[in-house]
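tool=predict chain=A
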Amino acid sequence: MNRVRQEKMRLGMIRDGEGAFIDSIHRLAGKVHCQIQVIKNIIAIMVLLPFLSNVNAHTTGNDMKESTMKKVPQLSVQLWSVKDVISEDFEGTLKVLADMGFEGVEFAGEFGSYANDVKGLKNFLDSINLKASGAHVSFEQLNPSNFDKTVAFYQQLNLDTLIIGWDERAWHPEGIKAVVKLLNQLDKKLAPYNIKTGFHNHNHEFNDFQGTTYWDYLAMNTADSVVLQQDVGWTTYTGKDAVEYVNKYPNRTLTTHYKVRIPEGVKGKLPIIGQDTIDWLNLLKANINVGGTKWIVVEQEEYPNGLSSLDAVALSKKGLDTYIKQL
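tool=predict ok
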C-alpha cells in the first residue's frame, strides 16, 4: 500500500508539474500574442502616419486660410473716383466696376437715372451683384428738414453707414466743437434705423489742435460708435502713420478709404496702390485685427500717365488684390 500510495503521489506531482508547465506556456503565448499585436499596431500607425500628417496639415492649412479670408473686409469703390464717366453712363460704369471684382460701391451724390427711383437702383445693383457699402452725405442732408427723406432713400439700399465726407469746420478751433456735437447727435438719432454715421478725413484734420490734431480731438470727443473713416492717402500725405491711427482707435475704422496721395518731395512713385510708399500689408492686418473694418473702399483721385479713371481704378484694385493674397 505504501508503495502504491507513493507511486500515485509521484504521478500526481508529475501531472501537476505538467499542468503548471502547460499553464506557463499558455501565459507566455498570450504575452507573445499581445506583444505581436502591439508590434502590428505600431507598424500600422507608422505606415499611416505620413498620410495622416499630410491630411491634417492640409485640413489645418485650409481652415487657417479660410479663417483668414473670412476676416478680409469686402471691397468697395468710391464712385467719386470715376465721376467723369459715371455722369455719362451710370449703368455701364457700375457694370465695369462689378466686372473688376468689387463687391460694393460707395455713393457720393450721383445716381444716374435712379435719383428718384431708389427701388429701381436697388434692383439694378442686385442684378450686377453690387451692394451699397455706404454713402458720403453732408450735415445738411441729415438736418431736421431732410433727415427722413435721406434716411428713407438709403434704407431701401440696405445701407448702414452714412459718412460726412467734408466739412470745413472740422479744422477750425470753434467749428470742430460743432462738428463733434452734430456727430454725437446723429449717432443717437440714426441708431434706431441701424445706421451709423461717421466722418471722413482730409489733410487739414491733421493740423495741430490743443496739443494733438483736429482728427484726434474728433475721435476722442465722439462716441465710440461714430465711424472714423480714415482716408489713408491724406493721412500718409501729412506724414502720419495710417496703421498707428487704426490701432489708436480700435473698432472705429468700420469703413476706410484706400487711396494714394504721394507726399511732397517723393520721386519715382505713382498714386496707384502697390506703386507707392504705403505699408498696405500691415495696414490690412490692422484693419482686420484691430479696426473692425467691414469695407475697404478704393478711391482714385489722380490718374497718372494719361490713364483713364477706370484704368487707374483697375490698377489700384489689382495692386490691392496682390497684398490681400499675401495675408
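Residues 1-22, 42-49, 51-70 have pLDDT under 50 and may be disordered. Residues 1-70 form one domain.
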